[in-house]
Amino acid sequence: MVSWWCSWCLTRQSQPASVTVQPGQRLTISCQVFYDFRIYIYATFWIRQPAGKGLEWIGWKSIRDSDYEESLKNKFSIELDPSGKTVTLIGQNMQPDDSAVYYCAREVNSSSIQVFC
Fold first, then answer.
1. How many distinct structural domains can be found in the chain?
2. Mind listing the pLDDT tens digit for each residue in 15-33?
3. Residue 112 domain-assigned?
4. Are 105 and 115 in contact (CB under 8 A)?
5. What is the C-alpha separation between 96 and 78, in angstroms, rounded?
6. Is residue 105 part of a domain?
């Protein structure tokens, strides 16, 4: 079983706080954010933290560009929906070792980010 839960949410969440998918299935997690990411300077990040481990960078996406952790770029993609101000993380072929708390965050300025969920 692969589990996801939101440990601290500052956004309006339509997604349940906990999601479980079977191994090999697709995972979709959405965060609705409070800013207009059509402004190209804003980037949205996804980070995860497996139980008992440190934070693991997944990737980021802006309206113009994106980048992913090399080891995860074939597993995860990030989609933006500007009309609904929604940022979605999509995971393919999820496995038990993908169980983690997944965080959505956005760039505040060049030296800090703000965690959303």
1. 1
2. 445 677 789 999 999 887 7
3. no
4. yes
5. 21
6. no
Q: Residue 87, SS3?
A: strand
Choose among 44, 65, 46: nearest CA to 55.
Answer: 46
| 66: amino acid identity, one letter | S
Q: At residue 105, what is the residue type?
A: A
Q: What is the pTM of this model?
A: 0.76
pLDDT attached to residue 67:
95
* Residue 36 in domain: yes
3-state secondary structure 42-78: CCEEEEEECCCCCCEEEEEECCCCEEECHHHCCCEEE
Residues 2, 23: Cα–Cα separation, whole Å: 7
Place of tokens 């703000």: 114
